[in-house]
Every structure is written in C-alpha cells, then in structure tokens.
Amino acid sequence: MPLPQDELTALAARLDDAALTATAVPQPTWPPGADTDDAYAVQSALMNRQLARGERTVGLKMGLTSRAKMVQVGVSEVIWGRLTDRMRVPDGGAVDVSTLIHPRVEPEVAFLIGRDVLPGDDFASAVAAVAPALEVIDSRYADFRFSLPDVIADNTSAAGFAIGPWQPPPTALANLGVLLEIDGRVVQTGSTAAILGDPRRAFEEAVRLAGRQGVRLREGWVLLAGAATAAVPLAPGAQVRAVVEGLGTASLSAKGDDRA
Ligand code: OOG
Ligand code: MG
To answer: Of the candidates 111, 169, 215, 238, which lies 20 to 30 Å from 250 by C-alpha distance?
Structure first.
C-alpha cells in the first residue's frame, strides 16, 4: 500500500528542515508494506521543495555501488539520488562544514551525459566525458545510521560534489587505481573495479533504476558512479584530494566550525 500523501510530505519536510538547520533527525518509522517506491516518492517530494527554492537539477548520483560502501553503512542495495546546482563545489573550492551535520567525503568517478538518454542507450553513445570527482555526503539521520528506505528518502545523503577536469571517456575504465588523500596523506585506496565490477555499469543502473521512477538522464547532466572506497569524516581545515589513475585529480577543502 503506498505511503499516504500527508505522511510522505511530512517526512520530506522533516528531512528538508534537518538539512537547512544542520540538525539530525531520528530514523522514520515506515508503515507496514512501505517499499522503495515510497522512499523514492519522499525523495521526489524533498527535491520539489529544493526546486521550489530555486535550485536546479544538474544530475544524478549512484550510491552503494561498491562493497566497501555497502559494508560501511550496512545497506546492500544500489540506490540513486539527485544533484542540484546548490551542491556543486568548484574543483579546488571550499565546503562550509558548519552548514552540515556530520559530513563525510569520498572519491568518485563522474560522467558527463552528452544527450537525453532513452531506455536501452548504452554508455558509449550517452557519455560524453569522464572526470575524477569528490562527493560530500551528510546523512540527515542521527549517528549516520539508516535503513534502505531511510537513505533513499534522504536523497542518498547528497550534500556536495566537486568535479575535476573532464576528458573523453578512456577505452579502459574498469580497473583504475583510486586514492583519497586528506592533508597529503592517503586515507583510502581502491579501484574502479570495486564499482559494480566496472563503473560503466553504474550508468546502466542509473538508466534502469531512475527510469523505474520515471526519471531520465538529460543532456548536460552529471552522473556520479558511486564511491569505490568507504567515506571518511570531513573536518574543518581538511584539504581533500581524489586521485583516479589516468583521469587526474579533484580537490576541495573544508572550512567552518566543526559541529559534528
Ligand atoms: C549513502 C550514499 C552512498 C556512494 O557513493 O555510495 C554514496 C551514504 O553512504 O550515506 O553516495
Ligand atoms: Mg557517493
């Protein structure tokens, strides 16, 4: 049975306020029978509130596409969320962590969508460019703890992203080394092979899973493939860099008071 409209909008409002006030909220109690379609309906209502404030959708993100991420958060399903222009951090720019609850950062691979994507379109025809990237996630739930529907409703913890230099898609993407550095020290290592065996599969999953909710990738959008490694806490003052073998680097810094 679908979630009643008033419960759906109330949960979206609670998550929106949590983000706006940088205050964590408890995990919701879902009615019996609620499923991921209900959770995506909440995510959509949450996004509508952000769009009503003037934000623009600039892409999608995949989440939990690697074992390392699934193990870290205890949820074992691939999920997707929405990116808006407010979340964009220029490469090398600063994120104000005083506006966030308990931010974490993770290395990503980004795809630039070259045309409106139809069901069945493949990676080669749809993806115009590839870049190294960083994602800042900030669960709106206390202690960064959530179930599958919780994290979907919370727009998959999306909070910020920085994208390094775009380049034409390389012929091999499936086994590139990935490093996450903080203040010049390597804090996570992995491989793009950890992303569903090949990050191109993240594109296919985005088409399939977002398509199921009636959302299609558009020309000019960004798609984050999902982190290859676990995320690490993002503290004020940190200088963060993602290095993806053959693709280069993306970087950001964290400024502001630590509210975590
Ligand atoms: C959920 C978001 C997951 C990824 O890259 O796997 C994600 C979370 O970890 O809070 O962005
Ligand atoms: Mg991510």
So the answer is: 215
